[in-house]
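To the structural biology subgroup,

Please find below the input and predicted structure for RNA-directed DNA polymerase, which we are adding to the shared reference set this quarter. The sequence is reproduced verbatim from the submission form. If anyone notices a discrepancy with their own records, reply to this email rather than editing the shared folder directly, so we keep one authoritative version.
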Amino acid sequence: MIHDAQRNDPHPPDLNHERGYRKQGELIWGRPRKGTPWRLYVPTAIRPELLRQYHDSAEAGHPGSDETHRALQRHFYWRGMQQDVRSHIRDCNLCGRVKKASSHPAPISSHTPTEPWKHVALDLMGPYPTTAKQHRYILVITDLFSRWVETFRCEQPTPPRSWASWRGKSSRDGDPQAILTDNGTQFSSKKWTETLQRWQITPWTTAVYHPRANPTERRNQEIKTALRLRDWRQGT
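Predicted structure (tokenized):
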């Protein structure tokens, strides 16, 4: 595709006068500055198709501008690539319908974990279409030290039962010292409070008006976006 596009390019780079380009065999290569790897030069005609492949496709999953740009520049080069990526994503209809910009910065937590799996954050997502095993919800667990995220499918949005199921199947040794959640009713129930007391876990909650202080909430937005994008494509 690129070979044909270069051959038919009405405005190819001037290899005799423009820096950052060279021809090797039948292909033109480019690079942003000396010392960086040579990459395939992409003519104007096929840039939109590459942008669609690296942003719009199901495999790409509509990543942000920085991630899309990094993926493209591993293999390709053209001047103004970053600006073209930003323009493409800004005009992406699906991203505009699905992705939401955060207007409130999350407050900085006063609790700083010092080792893995001692302080974790929890959140529940769903309901989703019922699976063959009757799962409709997803429990998202984030280690606040490493930011490692694990997910666990569950039938009902009941934190004690969901946490106990994950706890029984997890390879983690022991329970965390503290669990951070939002202020949802499922995390303020008497049963959940009693469960934490029984396991000697300290409950933490995010500020009522700043639920995104919970890092699990931020990861949930990424998971939810991927699920919505899939549903939009399938027309559901």
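Summary notes: The chain has two domains: 1-101, 119-232. The longest helix spans residues 215-234.

Regards,
Lab coordination
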